[in-house]
Amino acid sequence: MTGNGYRTIAFYPDRCDGCNLCVEACAEHHAGSKEAVHSRIRVCGDEEGRYTGIALCRQCSMPRCAMNCPAGALSKDPETGVVCWDEEKCVGCLLCTLTCPYGGIVFNAASGRVMKCDFCGGRPACVEACTRGALELKRGADLYNAWGDLEDLVVPGISACLGCNSELLLRHTLRRIGPNVVLATPPGCIAGVGAVGVNGKTAVKTPVFHPLLTNTASMLAGARRYYNRIGRDVTMLALGGDGGTADVGFQSLSGAAERGEQMIYICVDNEGYMNTGVQRSGTTPFGAWTSTTPVGSVLRGKTREAKPLPLLMVMHNCEYVATACTAFMEDYYEKLEKAIEASKKGMAYIHVFSPCPTGWRFPPGKLIEAGRKAVQTNIVPLWEFELKTGRIRFTYPVDDPLPVQEYLSLIGKFRHLDEEQIRLIQEQTERKIQILKAFTKEGRDGDETRVEGVGS
Amino acid sequence: MPQTRYVIIGSSHAGLSAVEAIRLTDRDNPVFLLTQEDTLPYSPTILPYVVSGEADPEKIFLKDEDALKGSGVVYRRGEKVVGLDLHARSIILKSGEILDYDKLLLATGAAPVLPPVEGLEGVSCHVLRTLEDALGLRRAMEGSRSAVVLGGGLIGMHAAENLHKGGLKVTLVEALDQILPGYFDREAAGLIRDIFRENGIEVLTGSVVTRVFEDRGRCIVSLDSGEERTADLLLVATGVRPRIGFLTGSGIDAEEGVLVDERMRTTHPDVWAAGDVAQAPDFFDSGKKRIHATLVNAVEQGRIAGMDMAGDEALVPHPGGIAMNTYRFFGHRAFAVGLGGENSGELSPHHLVEKTGPRYRKIVLQGGRLVGASGINDGMDPGIIAELIRRKIPLQGLEERFISDPLGTGRVLMSRTWR
Lengths: 456, 419
Description:
The complex is a heterodimer.
Chain A: E1 7-11, H1 21-31, E2 42-45, E3 51-55, H2 64-67, E4 74-76, E5 83-85, H3 95-99, E6 105-108, E7 113-116, H4 125-129, E8 135-139, H5 142-148, H6 165-177, E9 181-184, H7 189-195, E10 208-209, H8 216-230, E11 235-241, H9 242-247, H10 250-259, E12 263-269, H11 309-314, E13 320-325, H12 329-342, E14 347-353, H13 357-360, H14 367-376, E15 383-386, E16 391-394, H15 405-408, H16 419-438, H17 441-455
Helix pairs in contact in A: 6-12, 8-10
Chain B: E1 6-9, H1 13-25, E2 31-34, H2 47-52, H3 65-70, E3 73-76, E4 81-85, E5 90-93, E6 98-100, E7 103-106, E8 110-112, H4 131-142, E9 146-150, H5 154-165, E10 169-174, H6 186-198, E11 202-205, E12 209-215, E13 218-223, E14 228-231, E15 233-236, E16 240-242, E17 258-259, E18 271-273, E19 278-281, E20 289-290, H7 295-309, E21 324-329, E22 332-338, E23 350-354, E24 359-366, E25 369-376, H8 382-390, H9 399-404, H10 406-415
Parallel strand pairs in B: 1-2, 1-7, 2-3, 7-18, 9-10, 9-15, 10-11, 17-19
Antiparallel strand pairs in B: 4-5, 5-6, 8-16, 12-13, 13-14, 19-20, 21-22, 22-25, 23-24, 24-25
Helix pairs in contact in B: 1-7, 8-10
């Protein structure tokens, strides 16, 4: 069953610069004047110049304003979802303004009436006026419907740890890629949760095999070449852990990428060997506790930084490389889409940040929050690389990142960090962002300008 | 969903809000919605606007038959409830019919009370609580040239303005020394009173009516000052009392109103109460149970009662009733939320008063949190003010800024919780 999606205006505070074009456009549309008094939308800015939100009608599903209107002048239109105000019926008692916590219906001192967002008949003037993409028109259930209609190719009740990211990742990845796939899962958590199964039964409804830790990419390359020979277009998909990808399996992955083998290789990076006793891997970050990077009187967690695996894959001239996080599922789906296309030509590599409640020691309920904070601190920047453009593009640019401590303090494996270590992690994070930025369009164009400047 | 028969007595805001809440969880079981009046559901709050002609009495109804039927409601009008049998789980209607329930909501509201004034029983006077009252008052206005309104609460004030606009010479008599005491302090009430006086309405505060009698079809009101006022029309708006007469001897505990907890449960497990009939925990003094007879409280309490009746797990118990309202008069607007009325004690409020305009702002802080605010012609979002109070959101050092710019600062504080 698909739900009805109502449209809504989304606000991205990071992109807002307080220009008030939205306010002017709204007033102009509704009253033919740019005066803010007529605007149904207002930007809330604090003293430090941060934009915290918009005072605007949310077109609530159960609008309090309508429930509290004694005149029956407010009602939700079941077709459009817009909370409609009937000017004729309104007696001006103002009770609606007493019940809206969003400042979404307000008294207009110039007209003497209340006013609220009416969606401008479907094309909100504020959204069209915003030049920075801080306002976007979205349909609430679009994604839900699009994903909900796809078949879940994983059986119920798999044996993941409580709060494990792997189940979320496995289900959604297979939903999007679909049944025309051969899945390879080397030893690791994805295999461990039941993808390759026990006693001859597997938890996935697609062909699946269990390569060695060392040969996932080469076995998939062989399978793909066979399908190519018999004329069938089947997607090859690897879901490997960071050990099976960055360390033990890297030789075969590197070779397959260099040869341009057609597959989607997804690295489920939980930053260590999580299902064999939480040992360190090549992608375990600096300072993290693992059972082989202990914390005691001498050692204070891992002393080396994580391997920049996604960048290494960019350097292999893969068709497509991206980083992703299940806390940003919409972003992940878009990347899967591009990966499917790219894998028809060559290697598509996605590196998924995958927090592990068991091995990283944080409560299972905090999985998504950990992902969000990792991205918002720039510890895990979300980006993609396409060979055809030759550039990296940030898909969720974080211009004003939170301090890394906001992420680190959520995670038990970082509990021991001292101020010096935190400072180092902050520095490493900023340095890595600068490196990535050099590969973006802006970074490259900037370099060219400078080079020309020196030459002339 | 097990078979459950919901019966709701009273079809105004609390009852309608309960129906919506029940239907979020329980789509199938029947809901019986009863009203003693012979109309579709409407709000008593609209009645002053029916009197003034701003609202068309044909278009004030909040639900029509189709909408009620569509949500599985059996709507029964003209059904007065005369008794309740908790043991048999049934209510007794005036017609003699016995209606069984599994879960019962008392949302019978309140009825006007006549003050104990000598002679008042013997004269014909108006009250304003039902649509019939409003239409009767409207008709009576046509042949009248003068009116006396007893009571300076919201209903009395609204009515006095409407009678004045209808061309009558109006005197409003309030026994207390200020109008609207539940919402505004003496100073704000004084500003409102002055506007009434400037518009030609006589407002007598601290004035007690000692006797009322009729003389040649006109009504004479004697005051304790020794003066008299003569009027063609007498409107009594001195207060309301919960409609709980039918509960006498039933076993449901009641004081002024039906006693309920923060889930709107009465002392009996199958019976809930919400709205003007319910005496519920107070937000600022949880040990006390009070009646906050406002539309906003009725909606909220009805919603909570409905959720609890249907076993909705998402229910968050009611944080307690808060006095709040909005008020428009002679082109001005006012609102009040929380503490700050004349009877709320000393809380070091912050004031801004401009006699011209007039403009008035009062902000009451306690322990770094907002506990009350009121304003006349002042730019604040009353809804945001109410939410800041209800959620006890700390002002985090923004107290000074909040006092000077409550609109912008309130929005910033709330917006941190919006996403």
